Amino acid sequence: MNNIRKQVITARNLSKHFGQVQPVREVNFTVQTGEFITLLGPSGSGKSTLLGLIAGLEQPSEGSIHLQGREITGLNENELALFRRKHVGFVFQAFHLIPTLNSLENVAFPLYPVRMQEKERTERAMALLEKVGLKDRAAHLPARLSGGERQRVAIARALINEPSILFCDEPTGNLDSTSGGEILDLLLQLNQHRKLTIFMVTHDKEIAQLSHRSLYMHDGEVTAS
Ligand SMILES: Nc1ncnc2c1ncn2[C@@H]1O[C@H](COP(=O)(O)OP(=O)(O)OP(=O)(O)O)[C@@H](O)[C@H]1O
Ligand SMILES: [Mg+2]
Questions:
Q1: pTM for the complete prediction?
Q2: Is 163 in the pocket of ligand 1 (CB under 6 A)?
Q3: In a mutational test of the pocket of ligand 1, which residue from 48, 51, 219 has the highest number of ligand atoms less than 8 Å from its CB?
């Protein structure tokens, strides 16, 4: 039986320098389609820097990254932006919602560069708000949402372009345990039902135990579990 699964992220000999600082040192790993991976490690060990590299937000100093079978190292800014828009979603600890837009507009925001009827944009954003349980908060500005609700809006926004990989940098780090648990349930559901690949930085060992596999980072180096 053919059980070879497709590699969705491949990092080879990845390094990043900022002058004398080298937060990522010759990192190698692969992630298969549909995996839920957690990346753990002490503060300052290079987790966010590594995430930025493999998500195509920053270029590495050395090494290569393949996402969805495509080498993204060497793509120019425009090519990278297009690639990210098509394949990648991001969720951050601090939510990064646009304060002057309501929930619906925040979720729809990544669709604005895409040629699409306003009606379709709104319908897609509303369907995702419903999926994250916030249909009745569509008209609320972020300031009128709880932390957990803001993060659910941010997850809906990250999913609007139907990415195949979701990168999360401590998505429950600013939330109390109840809201954090709801966010985790939502992510687990997306992973299990939609086979969405999730790569998550976290300090939370309980989340790590729920993931398929953990990677550990220490002084810029990655070891597998
Ligand atoms: N743009 C930059 N210029 C210079 N140094 C940087 C830059 N970005 C990160 N660093 C340094 O790289 C190291 C790793 O930072 P990074 O944010 O990746 O750590 P982290 O593991 O995500 O930590 P935390 O758990 O606190 O979020 C730190 O020493 C940081 O100061
Ligand atoms: Mg970090």
A1: 0.93
A2: no
A3: 48
Within a 10 A sphere around the Cβ of 57, how many other Cβ atoms? 15
Task: State the pLDDT at residue 149.
Answer: 95
111 neighbors 121 (Cβ within 8 angstroms): yes
Lookup: tokens for 39: 């990346």
Q: Where are the domains of the chain?
A: 7-224
Q: What pLDDT shows up at residue 199?
A: 98
Nearest CA to ligand 1 atom 2: 18
Residues 101-116: tens digit of each pLDDT: 999 999 999 998 888 8
CB-based contact 82:104 (threshold 8 Å): no
| Residue 43 near ligand 1, beta carbon < 6 Å | yes
Nearest CA to ligand 1 atom 18: 46
112 touches ligand 1 (CB under 6 Å): no
Question: What is the homologous superfamily of the domain 7-224 according to CATH?
Answer: P-loop containing nucleotide triphosphate hydrolases (3.40.50.300)
Q: Are 130 and 162 in contact (CB under 8 A)?
A: no
pLDDT (tens digit per residue) in 49-78: 999 999 999 999 999 999 998 999 989 999
